[in-house]
């Protein structure tokens, strides 16, 4: 029983991390209808920024995190303006081609600057190791991840449901034309949403360096996971993405523990089952 | 086919036939296939670095003939790409020797082509035992997994460890490592209490490690391809406190890869590995090698066992060409490489005339800090050890 609780905890923490990185993709894919396969690039950028900020600039871990969010969000705005916007109305194939291209450019760029190897990052002492709670060994860092994940989820849900900006986002998504006619600057709304999502991916990438490790192939290695979570959760739904990430995180962790021979494929089995049950995603909107 | 086309074909054929006559002035072409992009780009960089360093130190002329090396990228585990590159090399570029091969699948895919073309094929990393049996033209200058895994089992048994667990990556080299370890360990009368194979691309090890922790072995033997898996494993191992629970970590050279030591940092201290090369190997030749490597590629990048295999592979090619006096005939070259023995930065090595595989000293090393950086310090060794995978 205790080992199951421990596993559940690990799985939830892993899921939280995947949620942080994927939620931005859910927004661009579901709300804006843009297939942004290059989403992982922002996560990788966050990871490398953390390495640079903590290494060369000597910033402490906690101070680096908000800075990473801001920098990655700002950088994504530049990309959005120059590359993404012209393709908003294009076919999905064009969008896929563009964003896959961006992945390869990013991989080559990261390899050029940092080399193909692994990047070292040392998280602060007080986040390392485990502590025991009622007989269950819990990792400090994973608890920290879950706390951040919970805070961000609350922030996102509150922001979307309760603020004026959230109302504008929902309006723009429901009916773009009407929203525009009502005086909502739809383009601006999408732009900010996009930047928020990318910033979160950057933050998730930075937090993930210690768990997922970081090399130039990050955006490609995890692409399947991001897409899987968004599709299972239902594109555009924040709670759906969270639910899917947690479910798949737990399934992955438990599968590997109980049936190590085939456990690594558990995540795909769960995906197939969930999609059969809910083809539009767990909390997706039926179109 | 009309008259005109026939004429052209005849002309072309004539040219092809005339080509060997002009060979005396032709340079010796070596076609190298390495992963230069993709998740294993690191391997290609290291092997290429070693290979180029040898040429830089020893010139590009052997037995009066110039050596021309071409390096092409097979992107990692992509046998079909390796195969296409090899056939391009053989058909279009008319290379005399094939070399490189970072990973087993790529070497396996190219082996039949080397046999067909009767060209020597020099392996500079791929380490599954069976590779050299796939073509009589293959000679290996790197290592085999059973060769470095079996001594680890002997060490475990000698240190009084009775309960072991193994974790390996689920592909050729991993299964080789597991089999060799198990065989050698159980020969000492002990039993493995569990073993697990993880997908090569696995990234989160926490569940596997929890499973090992719950099984409470005295030590765990590990083989993972060097790279992100190694880093993730060690992080999870430390985080879950396996070291504090008294579960020792025993691994192959791939785990405490010199090139990864700066990333692994303090957390790798005390880990015992078995391997054929450490950049801290105490010999004049190795000191010169490490210094030359630093001069050529900077001190940030450390030379690892792959770079040495590239270096030695090139040394082997040079030595064989000297013996044949510049003759690049595949059979003659392979015959010249059989029984070849020379000192490498890793120590004395030789090529087994029977198997065309490498015979070398396998060292036991412990990760220790020296001048602020962590190195694998050798403390014991098994001399002239042959690949047990072929016995």
Question: What is the fold-level CATH name, i.e. the topology of the largest domain in chain B?
Answer: Rossmann fold
Mean pLDDT of chain B: 89
Mean pLDDT of chain A: 87
Helicity of chain B, in percent? 40-55%
Query: What distance lies between the first and last C-alpha atoms of chain A, to the nearest angstrom?
Result: 42 Å
Name the CATH homologous superfamily of the largest domain in chain B. Answer: Response regulator
Number of strands of chain B: 15
What characterizes the major β-sheet of chain A? 2 strands, antiparallel
CATH architecture of the largest domain in chain B: 3-Layer(aba) Sandwich
Q: Roughly how many Å is the radius of gyration of chain B?
A: 22 Å
Report what the structure shows:
The complex is a heterodimer of chains A (287) and B (391). Chain A is an all-alpha fold. Chain A has one domain (13-216). Helix content of chain A is 73%, strand content 3%. Chain A has twelve helices and two strands, in the order H-H-H-H-E-E-H-H-H-H-H-H-H-H. In chain A, strands 1-2 form a two-stranded antiparallel sheet. In chain A, helix 1 (2-31) runs antiparallel to helix 8, helix 1 (2-31) packs antiparallel against helix 11 and helix 6 packs across helix 8. The relative contact order of chain A is 0.20. Chain B is α/β, with parallel strands linked by helices and 391 residues long. Chain B folds into two domains: 3-143 and 285-359, Response regulator (Rossmann fold, 3-Layer(aba) Sandwich); 146-282 and 363-390, Rossmann fold. Chain B contains twelve helices and 15 strands. In chain B, the strands form two sheets. In chain B, strands 7, 8, 9, 10, 11, 12, 13, 14 and 15 form a nine-stranded mixed beta sheet that branches. Chain B has a six-stranded mixed beta sheet with strand order 2-3-1-4-5-6, with helices on both faces. In chain B, helix 3 packs parallel to helix 4 and helix 11 crosses helix 12 (330-337). Residues 18-23 of chain B have low confidence and may be disordered. The chains are: A mainly alpha (287), B alpha/beta (391). The A-B interface holds A 3, 6-7, 10, 14, 107-108, 111, 115-120, 122, 128-130, 137, 139, 141, 210-217, 221, 252-257, 260-261, 263-264 and B 37-39, 41-42, 45, 196-199, 201-204, 206-208, 210-211, 214, 227-228, 230-232, 235, 238-241, 259-260, 262-265, 301.
